[in-house]
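Weekly structure sync, notes
Attendees: PL (lead), two postdocs, one rotation student
Agenda item 3: pending single-chain targets
PL asked that the sequence for the first pending target be pasted directly into the notes so everyone works from the same version. It is reproduced below exactly as submitted, 711 residues in total.
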Amino acid sequence: MNVLQLLPSLNVGGVEKSTIEMTRYLEANGHKSIVVSKGGKLVRDLTACGARHYELPIGRKDPSAIYSCYKKLKIIIENEKIDVVHARSRVPAIAGYFAARSTGRTFITTAHGHYKAHLISYVMGWGKIVIVASEMMARHMKDTFGVPPGKLAIVPRGVDLEKFSYIPRSDRSGKPLRIGMICRYTPLKGHLDFLKALSYVYRKIPNIEAVMMGDLASANPEYIKKLEMTINRLQLDKIVKISDSDRDTADVLGGLDIFVSANSQQEAFGRTVIEAQARGVPVVATRVGGVAENIEDGVTGLLSDPEDAQDIAEKMLRIARDRELAFRISTDARKKVEERFSLNKVLEMELNVYREAIASKSILVFKISSLGDIILSVPSLRALKEKYPDHKLKLLVDVKFRGVLAGCPYIDEIISCDLNGRDRGRGFLRLAGRLRSEDFDISVDLQNNKKSHLLAFLGFIPDKYGFANGKWSALINRKALPPKKAIDPISHQHCVLKLAGINRMEKRLELWPSEEGLAWVDRFFKDNWLQPGQKTVAFSLAASARWKSKNWGIQPMLELADLLARRKGIRVVLIGASGEDRLALDFMRMSTAKPMNAVGRTALPELIGLIKKCDALVTGDSAPMHIASAVGTPFVGLFGPTDPARHVVPSDLSRIFAKKARCSPCYRPVCSKHMRCMVNIRPKDVFEALIELIELKNGASARGRGSAEAH
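Predicted structure, written out during the meeting:
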């Protein structure tokens, strides 16, 4: 594979070391490594590995520089045929992220530092996989930046065990006690605490030498001056040396008796700590972040409280005075480094992250509402999963309908939203950020409205499929033209899915009734004195509060219920939302057919179970029709203001009544005239259709049982 690594510069530091090490490993194992930075003293080491370096001001924070780097990175990605873009720092990650997304490449990050919750830091959580070096950093990225746990990969820093070979500590009687710190010259590293602790140790053990090593070129001169003043004030000028990073770290560690890490703030990992342990140097470290994870206090090192110079000094004195403790700590620490932090083992872990990131693809399907439309999305979900079985498939749906597709085997995760509540205004931007953090490769928009198109755009999804319908569809980049003639809803969705390479779609609807919902139905039937073997037909009395024009009316429903009870002994079950209570009570009062009233008593699981257990359903153009189709219950659909050709999935177990009027289909929620399209549907015709469907279903069931018995 071809890997592009991004970092601000190639001078001395943990990020730079990690880049060089990964480059050597990639080139040695037949891969190609490209690095972009503003340059530095380690470029020579990089090119010596066989890698290519591009010099760009990729660490500059001004927008014009970031945009310029973004454009140049796109060219580099294309020319070098890059597979993975790996950002190791925040500012380079901004240009790298957009360059990778716009070219369809895999983008990952390594969070090297314990970043504050600054806007620019959030980009480090945008990788398809976010590499962290410790459990502490994993928690930090999850809690502070909202990175989903499934995107985090813990890959510790590694040590070259040959270069940092173990040196047994010999008897140092009469020789100076050598103590050292190797880290960046910055206040959070605790140099001042180290010097104070050293002053205390010096009073107890006069024969000591100390070194502080780091990159002087990148250090703040005022901070170096403060260190020098502190050394003079504490009268340590004869024993302490401030050193540049021009000496080899392994050589410096090889000459130490104690290594100190005095960080005052959270540390992501602490590379030099494990390098010192590999070299056999006993370590005293402050109890912060990833450093504390890598040291078992009293076993592989000694931990002290941060910003407590007295405690640090006492731990150094323990090691200096107890040769047996020092030996035991150094040998146990070396064993742990060999087991957990071998450089080749760690680099192979990182290479596997690259492989996983390339292989891991994800699809987001937008189907936010409504109930019936979500049920109608199942064939599309099934087709997508069959076409892309290795992709993670996630569905964005309104929180009210989160349970509709519970148990659906085609969905890996349901993401709920509330665009009329918590996800309005700033909440909308937070939702877009959540989608962006998921790093989706493809979105399939079955909602196709302004909000869904905007969410796909703000989610930075490379391939956004949907209809060119004028509803901000300029924000999506894979567009199908809406069909000019009326087609069924599954065929309508297929117009979009064809763009994603899906040539055939099975139109069968599915739902997965819950055991709890089915058990509720059994109790409901028992409480309403339903006789064993007695048939039931569900009546959906109203389509919705908004669509009055879809309702058949209470009078023809009463007449149909009477026909079913009188001629066939079939009992009617009234279903509907709580807002239809008054209509249901009127029906119960006026009917002589002893109907069962479930209006307002069913949540989604109970409604699905009830429709499944009924022998048939009578409904207008509403969600119960699609539920019936999905659970295999025969249904009669009553249409007037809407066109059944656009809203019904064809089925052998359905009959559609659509009495045409001159004005239909009008798609008006309220009829301003005579409702002739609905009034002209006769109860007798619906009755005959229901009996035919029930007999057809019973015949099919009997044939199925006979076939099973024959086998």
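Discussion points:
- Residues 683-710 form the longest helix (28 residues).
- Residues 2-154 form a domain with the Rossmann fold fold (CATH 3.40.50.2000).
Action: rotation student to compare against the earlier draft before next sync.
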